[in-house]
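Task 17 of the worksheet. Students: predict the tertiary structure of the chain below and write it out as structure tokens. Keep your answer in the requested format; marks are given for formatting as well as content.
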Amino acid sequence: MEAHKNPDYLRSLSRALEDFRDALVEFLELHMTHDGPGAVGRGLAPAVFALDNADPEEIERRSAKVSRAAGRAAAVTPLTGIQVNVQGVGVIDPIVNWQSMTRPKPLVEPKELLHTCDYALGHLEGLILQAEAEMPPTVGAEAMHPTVWGASKRLWRDRHYRQAVTAAAEAVVQMVKNRTGRNDVAETSLWQETFADRAPQPGKPRLRWPGDPADNHVKNMNAGLRNFAPGVQMTIRNSSTHQLQELDEQAALERLSTLSLLARWVDECDLLEASAQSTD
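Model answer:
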């Protein structure tokens, strides 16, 4: 199945775009905007200026967060057609060029970029509905989460089932590394820290099931993921990597299904990050 017709892939892009928009809003909290019809030098001066009391290190941290999120959301632009034609420059990607708002002659302005994100999110919702309506019924390995199936399909079709499971497990770990921006801990520790029942710390974001933390369902999901995710890493990824015994198709399919379920839950979780001032 082509990625742009896969509802799960489109939902992943929508989540990436939401993360970008949220990160941009956080970045703008430390800035004042220079816009509106009466703004002096509008179009020549930067569209945003740092507040006098804003911590430069915190600005840099939030800027890096927006840039990472922009990279994850880069595929949104060609899918939704949100390119912008800038006079004297040509057609640009407003997400990739978000940082120009901090420089002279900005290519994008905050309000317009936020409105563009909202439009693109709506467009993605429509694409998801269309993809779901047009998608033929599927069962088995090909119906797995796109991260899992994308990493394993070639090995799976060649009947290298153990290697397919290993590749899928590595892809799910990389998915979490990309989401959290962490490459500083071993994989099992990454899962343990990502779902830890502690507040996020600088450089140590957490994934949390969406909803009211006091709700029993939300509590159960967070507590379950805290144990389930590291367990999947140890029982599926580690065993498939270190044991040379081949898996039969059924055993491999069950492992892929577990990895797929974990990947879908990771997609649904909210990313919580701490400010640079937070301490352990």
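Marker's comment: The chain has a mean pLDDT of 89. The radius of gyration is 21 Å.
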